[in-house]
Amino acid sequence: MSADAALIEKYLEHVRVEKRLAQRTVELYSLDLQKLSDNAAKAGMALTRVQNAHIRRWVAQMHGAGRSGRGIALILSGWRGLYTWLGREGLVHSNPVQDVRAPKAAKPLPKALGVEDAVQLASYHNEEADPWLEARDAAMVELLYGCGLRVGELVGLDAVASGSARGWIDLQAGEAHVLGKGSKRRSVPVGSKALQALRHWLAVRGGEAGKDQPALFTGRHGTRLTAQSVWQRLKRRSLLAGLATPVHPHMLRHSFASHVLQSSSDLRAVQELLGHANITTTQVYTRLDFQHLAKAYDAAHPRAHRKDGDSG
Questions:
Q1: Is residue 95 assigned to a domain?
Q2: Annotated catalytic sites, by residue?
């Protein structure tokens, strides 16, 4: 066994026994440390001679080979742990991985439903469901998609306005008043379909909720509905409605934003409706909108269907 292999084995025994890491974690550490050992061997040096520049070069090579930023971050974590331990053992003077960070992964676009799928979900009515649950769930979907609310803002709504309410719906004015991130309040217009669904829900909500329960949306036991419950109900409803992908509350918020932007191109208005403190947060929806335009181009523009071999 080489000196490097013996060091790695001793370190793995340390994390297995003293840190009590799971066997699977130890196995992953072993694989990542073998990569480190292989890199050092190719460079003609022992693990204890590796410098910061070597680590950075190997990170660049991994990134160039297509490994994700998250994957590289996990590998670096294992390498960093080894050198921290080697430092405590007095075998290295500094940790060559200490200031090395993985490349940032490209931020994925938020998932949004197409307009037809969103309308299909909002219009869905389950004739066989409990009428009380059906009325409640329909109103929740209308508010999530029609107002772009966060799920926390939705479950924080009260049935009537009060000094202690985090949020409420003004049916007369057609507005939702919510408490968003950073304890910032905002008002959002509520469309006619959502108002209709809300009035229907309020008409049947009564007895189950109890006289002293202020929450707009409650469960069968009369307690305020949790965000997790909304996730579960929405997932179930989207599958019953025939959508190919299970829908979660934030997907409806993304759908609201992208559909409003497609129709109006008013980024500032969408920023206000969503309650984003910074316009850069809202700008992600311009990428969604561009995708929408690109698909329209592919479907309709004559130059999008050139045959192979056509000249430019």
A1: no
A2: 150, 181, 250, 253, 276, 285
